[in-house]
């Protein structure tokens, strides 16, 4: 057989392979990874020294997409049930064409309802793989300017005044702090912070205030304490009370627990000034992108937040950060055993995105 015949045979063989066929075996691994906290982390909802997250590796064509999801106790999620949800969908994931990730994720949302952290881990892994395959960072895939990232806050969990002061001193590097409140100790917490620093604060009540008049009084007082805005003052289902507060509030109000899916956002008009978008909460990068675009179209401020996570999830969110007004992407800074290196923070608190393809992660 001469060279011309060889080329013709190769062309025929290539044409026989259907479009989208798996050219290299697809493999999926799903594990629980325990992240150890630098300090005990306390909010209105819980207190812990570690967090278990769902870690996903999607392997195909010699590339590995990495993803991670942090189950949220508020929504009755945990790592073990999230892994079971993905394992049940394994045949679909293995046989699907990753280039049709929109279709695949829609099928996974139908097949694994309420497993948002697990779905987020899968979505992040797919988008990391897509970015690597295209050899572009995800911020470039979305058409974003990596220099347009916002400053991130650093979060201070609820603690006694002495420990609160110590945490604030440790966070001297950050120009803006996010302070967790929502208990009877709120005034003491803010006083402890103000005993150490005069820098701007953002406050998160995590649904902790259940009386609207008490909530309004606290917000009015916080307005005298150098606070920029208040996040989720009341329980998520109390939108009528939130509208009452919103009419009287001297500070902007940001929704967190009141928004989980893109379809939740229009309901928040008149009750909040903005939304806190979290990949773990909504189910991944693409859902977060939809939430940001809907909120912006409705004239709401946008914020990217995170759970306690490694640099995998935080970096995934950071790739979307040029789109938003505020960032609270510090979950990786709260842990002692981060397995990855990705997004970093410059001396002014501004997020610096990695330049590698996909998420741009390196081993920690």
Radius of gyration: 22 Å
Q: Output the number of helix runs.
A: 13
What's the total count of β strands? 15
How far is it from the N-terminal to the C-terminal residue, by CA? 53 Å
What kind of sheet is the major sheet? 8 strands, parallel
Write out the CATH superfamily name of the largest domain: Enolase-like C-terminal domain
Q: Based on the coordinates given, report the CATH architecture of the largest domain.
A: Alpha-Beta Barrel
Low-confidence stretches: 1-23
Based on CA inertia axes, which overall geometry fits?
globular
Order of helices and strands: HEEEHHHHHEHEHEHEHEEHHEHEEEEE
Structural category is alpha/beta
* Percent range for β-strand residues: 15-25%
Number of domains: 2
Name its key features.
disordered N terminus; 2 domains; alpha/beta; 364 residues; Enolase-like, domain 1; TIM Barrel
Characterise the protein shown here.
With 364 residues, this protein is α/β, with parallel strands linked by helices. It has 2 domains: 27-135, Enolase-like, domain 1; 140-363, Alpha-Beta Barrel (TIM Barrel), CATH 3.20.20. Helices cover 35% and strands 20% of the residues. The protein contains 13 helices and 15 strands. It has helices spanning 3-15, 79-88, 90-95, 101-111, 116-134, 138-141, 161-170, 186-194, 212-222, 239-248, 279-282, 285-297, 311-318; strands at 27-42, 47-60, 63-69, 154-156, 177-180, 201-204, 227-231, 253-255, 274-277, 301-304, 326-327, 340-341, 344-345, 351-352, 362-363. The chain has an 8-stranded parallel beta sheet. Strands 1-2-3 form a 3-stranded antiparallel beta sheet. β2 and β3 form a beta hairpin. It is globular and about 60 Å long. The model is unreliable at 1-23 (pLDDT under 50).
């Amino acid at each position: 057989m001469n060279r011309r015949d060889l080329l013709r045979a190769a062309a025929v063989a290539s044409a026989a392979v259907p479009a989208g066929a798996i050219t290299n075996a697809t493999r999926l691994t799903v594990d629980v990874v325990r992240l150890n906290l630098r300090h005990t982390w306390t909010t209105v909802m819980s207190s812990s020294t570690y967090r278990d997250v769902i870690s996903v590796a999607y392997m195909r064509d010699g590339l590995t997409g990495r993803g991670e999801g942090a189950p949220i106790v508020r929504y009755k999620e945990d790592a073990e049930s999230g892994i079971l949800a993905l394992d049940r969908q394994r045949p679909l994931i293995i046989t699907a064409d990753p280039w049709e990730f929109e279709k695949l994720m829609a099928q996974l949302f139908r097949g694994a309802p309420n497993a948002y952290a697990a779905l987020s881990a899968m979505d992040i892994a797919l988008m990391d793989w897509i970015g690597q395959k295209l050899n572009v960072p995800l911020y470039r895939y979305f058409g974003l300017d990596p220099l347009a990232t916002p400053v991130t806050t650093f979060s201070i969990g609820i603690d006694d005044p002495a420990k609160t002061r110590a945490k604030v001193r440790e966070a001297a590097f950050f120009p803006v702090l996010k302070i967790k409140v929502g208990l009877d100790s709120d005034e003491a917490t803010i006083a402890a912070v103000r005993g150490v620093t005069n820098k701007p604060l953002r406050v998160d009540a995590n649904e902790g205030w259940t009386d609207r008049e008490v909530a309004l009084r606290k917000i009015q007082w916080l307005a005298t304490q150098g606070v920029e805005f208040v996040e989720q003052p009341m329980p998520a289902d109390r939108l009528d009370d939130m509208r009452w507060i919103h009419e009287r509030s001297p500070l902007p109000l940001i929704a967190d627990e009141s928004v989980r899916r893109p379809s939740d956002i229009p309901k928040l008009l008149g009750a909040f000034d903005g939304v806190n978008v979290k990949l773990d909460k909504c189910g991944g990068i693409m859902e977060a992108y939809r939430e940001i675009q809907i909120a912006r179209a409705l004239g709401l401020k946008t914020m990217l937040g995170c759970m306690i996570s490694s640099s995998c999830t935080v970096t995934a969110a950071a790739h979307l950060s040029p789109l938003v007004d505020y960032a609270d992407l510090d979950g990786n800074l709260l842990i002692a055993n981060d397995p990855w290196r990705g997004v970093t923070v410059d001396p002014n608190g501004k997020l610096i995105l990695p330049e590698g393809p996909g998420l741009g992660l390196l081993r920690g």
